[in-house]
Structure formats: C-alpha cells, structure tokens
Design brief:
Helices cover 43% and strands 14% of the residues. The protein has 161 residues and is α+β, with helices and mostly antiparallel strands. The strands form two sheets. Strands 1-2 form a two-stranded antiparallel sheet. The protein has a two-stranded parallel sheet with strand order 3-4. The protein is globular, with a radius of gyration of 17 Å.
Amino acid sequence: MPGMPERRAHDCVRHGLAALFAAFDVATGEVASAPHRRHRAAEFRKFLTRIDKEVPAHLHIHLMCDNCGTHKTPALRTWLAERPRFHMHFTPTGSSWINQVERWSGFLADQMIRPGAPNNVQALEADIRRWAKSWDADLKPFIWTKTAEEILVTESEIRRQ
C-alpha cells in the first residue's frame, strides 16, 4: 500500500548473509566495497589495508563509521595509531552523515539484490562485486541538498531531543 513500508512476503527465504564494507570518494562518487562473510575487526582491518594502498599517500582519509564495536577494538586502534592519515569519526545513531552509504546500499538492494534474489552467499558476493564495478564505471557523486551549516544545525537539534 502507498505510504506503508515494504515487508517481506511470508514465503521469503534467505540464503545467507554477507557483511559489506564500503568507502566513498565523495568528490567523484567512486565506491570501494568489499563483501565479507563476517563483520569483525579482522575483516574491517583488511578493508582499511586495501584503502590505505589505493588512496594516494599524500591524502588524509576520513572514515565516517557507525558505533559498531568492529571499529573500536584494541588491535584496530593500534593499527590506526600507526597510520596518522586515517581519521575516525563515529556518527550518532540516526545521523545524516551516514546517509550516503545507506543510499548507496539502497540502490544496491533495489537494483541488484531484490530483483535477482541470489540463492547462496557466494552468488550474493559475486553480484555485489559486479554491481559495485558497474557503479564505478558510471560514477555519480551524491549531491547534498543542504549546506554543511544546515546539516550541523540539524544534527545539534537531533542531539538535544
């Protein structure tokens, strides 16, 4: 029904789960993504190592992360301390700063996952990699409709509530 959130059908069958790490170049819209079987600090560190290699050494890397414990383990903190160009920013729950990732994930779900419904985790991971590659072949940076000042005001209002 219009205005109602979409729900899964009673006969919907899930065939597995994949964790997906994604990093955006906000200037170009390019996305580095990596599906993994698990969502642990080890997989996150592997993803960050890839980002460290792919991003030119003279650039700083700002990571907007949710408050998941995966991003805060002692081993990961040590790894990050050895790489001062990495800057971690943790977003409050419901923050608009993470919306780019959520919107990209929405495109992924709408255009690839729901229509084809992969039958297993390997197929899901392959589909995610293929879709991400096609995204990067036709880059579309997200354009914010609010200024940074408007976003900061909104964030401060949310925190007060």
